[in-house]
Please model this.
Amino acid sequence: MSLMQRITAFLRSPRGQQLVDRGRREMAKPENQARLRQIATRLSSNRRR
Model:
């Protein structure tokens, strides 16, 4: 079984669904969205150099 198949199978499992739902809830929080934007800005500014 390839890595992608194992990942897909995990994400379809009950535990995988729990983790996906938790991730969605966390990303709905404004403070986490702001933190992600800061990281993305930092990474994009480093690439331009």
